[in-house]
Amino acid sequence: MEIGLIDYKQLGVRVRNVRLRQGLTQEEMANKADLSMSHVSNIETANTKVSLPTLKLLADILGTTVDEFLADSQVNEKTVHRNDIASELEDCTPAEARYLAAMVRNEKTNLRNIFATNQDT
Q1: Which one of 24, 39, 60, 80 has the fewest CB atoms closer than 10 angstroms to its CB?
Q2: If we measure between CA atoms, which residue out of 11, 1, 21, 18 comes closest to residue 47?
């Protein structure tokens, strides 16, 4: 892909993934955004080039940022995941946040052990 061009197919996939993560149907998201369901479908399948105002509206409805939809690199993807984790911690008590941080550390260690074991075989 050329520098500066938007990959509408990937953008649509990202919109769909966030919508599903939020538990919304295309119809529900369309109603919240005052769009037709076919327009939402066309955005998700890259059959239309979504406008920036519409993309911002969808991001607001889905509780994310336009950056998440446009992120094309692992660096940006990592930032998006960090933002997801931070938003989950916003309403936690200090005790809950400590517990969740310990869980993340343990799961990260477990995940790395699994990957290391799989690479050795």
Answers
A1: 60
A2: 11
